[in-house]
Amino acid sequence: MDTQRVNSYGIVGSIYANYIIQSMALIVLMQFSGDISKQLNTDLIGLGFVASGIGIGKILLMFIGGLLSDKFGRKPFIYIGMACYAIFFIGMTFCTDVNIAFCLAIVVGAGNSFLDTGSMPTLTECFPGSAGSASVLIKAFISIGSLILPFIVTFFYKNQLWYGWAFIGFTTYLIINGLCLLPKQFPHKDTAIRGNVDAENYFIGKPNFQFEGILLIIMGFTTTATFVIIWQWLPAIATQGVNMSDIEAKQLISYYSSASIISVFVTAYIVKRFLKPINCIIILPTLSALVLILFYFNITPLMCLITAIGMGFTAAGGVLQLTLVVMQQMFPARKGLAVGCMYTLSGLSFFIIPRVVPKLAKIDVSYAILTDFSMAFLSAVLGLIVYLRFTKVIDMKKI
Predict the structure, then answer these.
(1) Is the same domain home to 247 and 175?
(2) What is the average pLDDT across 172-190?
């Protein structure tokens, strides 16, 4: 195995390791809610206020991070992201003021932005011939972090250990990972994505950022909204729509999460061997739309289960990441900008959806399903339009 490839594996390994911590940081406040609420002298509402800072930091700095990443390279912003997480973990360990905790949450949101805008382009630059697979696999490591953290929390509570040791442990993990990444030489930031054929220049026309670029950015919102609605509201739909018990309804999310993890590896294999990312960003949203329209016309306990598995597999298995790969293929010199724009819209869906869907669900739970169908259908339509432009400006045999 050549030195450059070994170096790339080392870089990508560190990036995946960071995403385990990233996923933990986004939910750790609520997981340790009892101890942290006491320390901050607040309640769950106050803790929710603190946690909202994460979204603010993420939305405000994602676009800027993308521009700076394109200008100065990827490595500095991965380190800035890791430093933000370390500041958050150490700061929260000793913080006793809600407002300061809110500022720390903004810092971790900023860290999320900088880590994404440094890491996502790096994955495609390390493995330009397997960009789709490398990007989709991030979802698996995000899921790993979300699965591990509850076990860590349970261990600390059962053994009556101070939660701060967990935060110090997470910081130590980041420091070790940072030291491992330090000697690695990153690929050039203008490395273009290519297929199995060694073809750097696959353009036969000039992509238009003001058209297909904008459509792909909008897909950052629609593809995220498609899985967020089911992820957040399927239990409520199940309890209100078919009188499913609370425990059974919450178990649906376990099926959803399991399907999403399986989907990550299946999708990674498919885009490596059979289909291109541009094909998948049409096929997967179309399958999501099909599942949702069937659910809309047949809201039963069995369909709740089928929807949980179907949406986990089609909507939560990496559509957003594949959409990002397509955008980076079309605009290889603006990969950081692509991440910044698309993930800003993705973050915006986390802000808007919880404010819109509950009002619709109050009227009729089927409206929540219909809204989700609309998002999936719009994603498929936008993907199809992008595909038509994609085939006019890119030689499909060279990617």
Answers:
(1) no
(2) 90
**Which secondary-structure segment (H or E) carries 271?**
helix 246-273
Within a domain: residue 143?
yes
pLDDT digits (tens, 9 = 90+) for 268-291: 889 888 889 999 999 999 999 999
75-94 vs 164-181: helix axis angle to the nearest 10? 160
In this prediction, residue 196 carries a pLDDT of 47
Contact 90, 171 (CB under 8 A): yes
Is 146 found in the same domain as 24? yes
| Averaged pLDDT, 138-158 | 83
Looking at the structure, tell me whether residues 115 and 171 fall in a common domain: yes
DSSP string of 32-93?
A: THHHHHHHHT--HHHHHHHHHHHHHHHHHHHHHHHHHHHHH-SHHHHHHHHHHHHHHHHHHH
Nearest Cα to 190, choosing from 181, 205, 204, 201? 201
Tens-digit pLDDT profile for residues 310-338? 998 998 778 988 998 899 889 888 888 88
Whose CA is closest to 46, among 110, 96, 111? 96
176/244 same-domain check:
no
Distances (CA, A) of 314 to 114, 237, 240, 275: 28, 19, 24, 15
Q: Is residue 195 part of a domain?
A: no
Q: Provide the mean pLDDT of the chain.
A: 87
| Closest C-alpha to 61, from 84, 94, 31 | 84
The whole domain housing 311 covers: 209-398
Dihedral, CA atoms, 83, 124, 64, 279, nearest 10 degrees? -130
CA 389 to chain centre: 26
278 assigned to some structural domain: yes
Q: Check whether 211 has a pLDDT greater than 90.
A: yes
pTM of the model: 0.77
